[in-house]
Amino acid sequence: MKQVEVNFDGLVGPTHNYAGLSFGNVASLNNANAKSSPKQAAKQGLLKMKALHDLGMTQGVLAPQARPDIDTLRRLGFTGSDANVLEQASKRAPEVFLACCSASSMWTANAATVSPSADTHDGKVHFTPANLTNKFHRSLEPEVTGRILQSTFKNDKYFQHHVHLPDNEHFGDEGAANHTRLCSEYGRAGVEIFVYGRHAFDVSKPAPTVFPARQTLEASQAIARLHGLDDDTTVFIQQNPDVIDQGVFHNDVISVGNQNVLFYHQQAFFDTQNALDEIQRKFGDEKVHFVRVDTEAVTVQEAIKTYLFNTQIITLPSGEMAIIAPTDCEESDSVSKYLSNLITQDTPIKHVHYFDVKQSMRNGGGPACLRLRVAMTEQELGAVNQNTLIDDANFAKLNSWVDKHYRDELGDDDLRDPQLLIESRTALDELTQILNLGSVYPFQR
Ligand code: SUG
């Protein structure tokens, strides 16, 4: 049966802004309070989606969340009209207010962990929204993420949706950003690799000391159980605590996989050799291409700055692989040199395409952060909400929707403007019609 891998990119929301909310994410901290352009951000994302569609890939889109999150602000004690809630919260608790305005749901690599039907015991595609407990602004996402996923993959014959893990740091889960699947073909059972930052219950184990490890082993194990994965084809690897302390806040900032390729930095993992041996053993007879980037070629700092590993490795219809990289990689001498050389080597990666996603990069989100991968059979793909798939018509529709509703520029002061709340809700209400999602937002219910 033919299977494809579909990238579901997050559409950037109308309140895209830089608030320095993510301790441990260097770009987020460095760009705190810079002015943003929601319109440009959304368009950069749409152009990447359209380009992948034009390369012959199946491309989907996931709706953003509604912000400012008035419901959460009310839950935290702000009362009165919506305008009053905005004014009071921004004056009396500015940090809390900014966290409730983040458009962070755009990074759909953190929306959920997905296991394709070939890997699961019941033969369904499994989804568990990430609870994102480590950052308050991101912990506001899982419930609505779950609704968006259920409206996008709306067929219980093929799709199994789980509730996110308990909202507690012991089960801190960041979704697909810490999960990679290797397989010989998308339709064949693969090896699911979960990369965790620390052990929650055994604190004697190594852990970072400067920045937080957002993902726990126990959370990864719970996802594997929920998805009905086989122990024989599941691998749990600890991320190197030292690289977390240097700013590698998710595994997808230091390694990425596709089919029979694992592209990783020399310092990515804690116990690299054992991890790679286990992957190869569980993968079977076919050889995995372990493409290691040495510190000598690209330092961890340069990898964080350019997001060399937050690239998408995709399999083109021709069977060759392409790497989808941010233009920041092209602008770095060492990284662009590395990539030009990589595509001439004996690995399946034969092309590199650069995309300007700088609006997202300034918050620490590269091309791979912007997408959630879902490998599906033709039947499963047929059961997906078709309005969420990108074709020329849908791309044009979404572009005009952005033109109509998004602001060119946004600063902190704009976020408390009640008019922005009205604009955002009007935009998202219209979006749910374009994407045929139903009433997924709290303000619609
Ligand atoms: O969780 N940045 C996001 C970036 C997520 C990147 N995702 C992956 N690596 N898959 C985060 O740190 C910054 C928001 C701000 O500072 O305004 C933010 O949430």
Quick overview of this protein structure:
The protein is an alpha/beta fold and 445 residues long. The chain contains 18 helices and 15 strands. A hairpin with a 5-residue loop joins strand 12 and strand 13 (321-326).
Please tell me about this protein's structure.
The radius of gyration is 20 Å and the shape is globular. α2 (38-54) packs antiparallel against α16 (392-405). It has a three-stranded mixed sheet, sandwiched between helices. A three-stranded mixed sheet has the order 3-4-5. The protein contains 18 helices and 15 strands. The chain has helices at 26-30, 38-54, 70-75, 82-92, 94-99, 136-139, 142-152, 217-226, 241-245, 272-283, 300-306, 327-330, 333-342, 358-361, 378-383, 392-405, 412-415, 418-434, and strands at 3-10, 59-62, 112-115, 125-129, 159-161, 179-182, 191-196, 234-238, 255-258, 261-265, 289-293, 312-315, 321-326, 349-355, 371-377. The protein has a single domain, classed as L-arginine/glycine Amidinotransferase, Chain A, CATH 3.75.10. Bound molecules: N~2~-(3-carboxypropanoyl)-L-arginine (SUG). N~2~-(3-carboxypropanoyl)-L-arginine binds next to loops.
